[in-house]
Input
Amino acid sequence: MAQWTPSTWRSRPARHIPDDYPDVGRLCAVEKTLKGYPPLVFAGEARRLKQRLGDVALGKSFLLQGGDCAESFKEFHPDNLRDTFRVTMQMAVVLTYGVGKPVVKVGRIAGQFGKPRSSPTETRNSVTLPSYRGDNINAMPFTPESRTPDPGRLLKAYGQSAATLNLLRAFSTGGYANLRYIHKWILEFVNGSEQTRRYQALCDKITDALDFMGACGVTPESTPQMASTEYYTSHEGLLLGFEEAMTRIDSTTGQWYNTSAHMLWIGNRTRQLDHAHIEYFRGIENPVAMKIGGDLQGDELIRLLDVLSPANEPGRITLICRFGHNEVVEHLPALARRIRQEGRHVVWSSDPMHGNTSRTVGGYKTRRFENILSEVKIFMQILQGEGCWPGGVHLEMTGQDVTECLGGPAAMIREEDLSSRYHTHCDPRLNADQALELAFLVAEELGTYRKEEEQRLAG
Ligand code: PEP
Ligand code: CO
Output
């Protein structure tokens, strides 16, 4: 295969990367500045995540990946970060307990800004402007100035990502994630909901177990794993100019790592074999994920894996399936069978969001919670039936009390409620209550497999 450098992608066709910056010289200057900025993550952390995902690929752990569809400058606030972190922690408790395996936690956070859009332009009242493409490219207001790409936004996004990561590191290692505080991770607005009651009941059991262990001398002081957690970052590696600037040689191994996030994924619209994104991703050592939808055939998937994961190292590749609740049954079984026959190591993860998006009468982009649950459940059943481990979920979710997805548990959201707290900068997210219900569903389903396996082993 041809020589790779962080910039070889530039000679390939690229989709969804803006080419309408009015001042290309300024863009180059910003990319040069970024090259001199400190890495956001350390290569050793990305290697450790790859090991953790290797365990997921081998069926020993579960991957929970989630966060905003698009982070924004406007919604940047420590409370929002805390709420996303704590709903993730709550879900991880439910999953760890129910599935009986470690949960690898990865945020769509600290760099998830740039968006591929279905149309490059938007028309309102017969005025046509470039579409909004994420806060690191242009701005949401429908004016020519706002929609013009501005390279300075890349620097602002870098700064926000650094501050976000700093707080996330503090939450995960500074005491907040101590298992002794699991009761405190409950978000006020869901207090009293059915999901919160179930969560509290689980916390009571865990706290009893911790008391017992404490009496035996095993405490958060003696066992640091109980006092902190590992929380990793990820985003779609869409804007390759930015990603190139953040790609550095790791002094420990001499290999290239993307240092803007621990894990990056290739979007469903940018995974053409001979295009720029695949070229860029083949050269970095980070764990990488790829979104897959109904248009992908088995042969092409195998060719993509040959390029992206030639060593077939468990943990290197996560396949994020986003077929839609009606279509998953049509596409997933053949792909799962093919991967198994070929002996490829992959993490199978379900994104039940992007194949289930629709618009309401009021014009809001939304998703039905029942369809989301249904896709995850079918995904797990199909993979289990094919002898593969349904290793993870990939969610657009927030710890905030938003009204973006229809239906759901306690505070059932109806079409007329969407407008009340619809804050997303792109796609609709699960709110904390919906996210927790989904975690209970996955835990129950995988808990059944666990019992079946135990019975089988007991003969
Ligand atoms: C996303 O994850 O926000 C996204 C754009 O997904 P996909 O590439 O699967 O359409
Ligand atoms: Co999205």
